[in-house]
Amino acid sequence: MKKIVFFIVMSLELFAGTPVCDSGKVIKLLSDDNVGSRHQRFIVKLSSGKTLLIAHNIDIAPKVTPLQEGGVVNFCGDLETNDKGGVVHWTHHDPHNRHNGGFLEYNGKRYE
C-alpha cells in the first residue's frame, strides 16, 4: 500500500486573526498575564454592545498607564473571535517587521 503525503504550506499570517480597528469603553481591568510574554489585559465594550479582551504585549510596547475603567481606548490589532466576543492582540509594532503593527491610544497617547 502506498502512502500519499501532502504538505500544505500556509503563511502564519493566516492564523494571526482578522485586522480590526475600533474604540471601546474600558469596563474591566484585569491582572497582567506574566506567563511567557507579559500582557496587559482589560475588557472593552464597543458601541455595538460587544465586549472584547485586549491583550497588549508589554514586553514589546509600553504599558498603558494610568488606564481606568470608564476610559475610552482606540485600538488596532488582530481579532480572534470566541464565544465571549473575542481577543484583540498584536496591539504593538512587530520588532521583526514580519507582521503589520497595531496600537492602543488612550488619553491622547499612542502605545505601540
Description:
It is a single chain. The protein contains no helices and 7 strands. The chain has strands at residues 18-29, 39-45, 51-57, 72-82, 85-89, 103-106, 109-111. Strands 1-2-3-5-4 form a 5-stranded mixed barrel. A hairpin with a 2-residue loop joins strand 6 (103-106) and strand 7 (109-111). The radius of gyration is 16 Å and the shape is globular. The termini are far apart. The model is unreliable at 5-15 (pLDDT under 50).
CATH A-level architecture = Beta Barrel
Major beta sheet, specifics? 5 strands, mixed, barrel
Structural class of the secondary structure composition? mainly beta
- Could you name the CATH homologous superfamily? Nucleic acid-binding proteins
Give the total of domains: 1
The span between the termini is 55 Å
Outline of this structure?
By secondary structure, the protein is mostly beta strands.
